[in-house]
Amino acid sequence: MGIEIERKYLLASDAWRAQVERSEPIAQGYLVAMAAIAAGHAASSVRVRISGAQAWLNIKSATLGIQRQEYEYPIPLDDARHMLDTLADGVLEKVRHHVMVDGAHFEIDEFGGANQGLVVAEIELEAADATHPVPAWLGAEVSDQPRYYNVNLIDRPYSTWSPAEREGKENA
């Protein structure tokens, strides 16, 4: 069984940009998304993702928190494009930047479109209680706030959030 343990953070500054090792554009859409999950009709999200000439189908459990079941399978690029065009409720676009800090790999997603202005850092961990570097550019943790989950950004994009929500305040 695939388990993903991931923490998600806002960014306190742009200082991370000087440490970017590589970046790639990503387009992704959801075939089973939050509306079905919220209605109790789905126990998972099903995502199609394209990055460059590669594509994947990803299935992730619809649970809150830093630890979730996750399965990812490569699929033909043409199939992925067709699924995004015909089956997805919308397409989320972002640029993923890869940053290494003291041996830890941070993925920093800079969103576009209706989510322009949202930038979050994610780090995958070996265990839920594992420690990791905390560079000065890392801001508030938002791992337990569902509005930051990619699956939710299609139905409720960052551009519609209140100022308090944009600051990561949990009860906004």
Automatic annotation (TrEMBL):
SMART domains: CYTH (SM01118). Pfam families: CYTH. Residues 2-155 form the CYTH domain. The active site is at residue 30. This is CYTH domain protein.
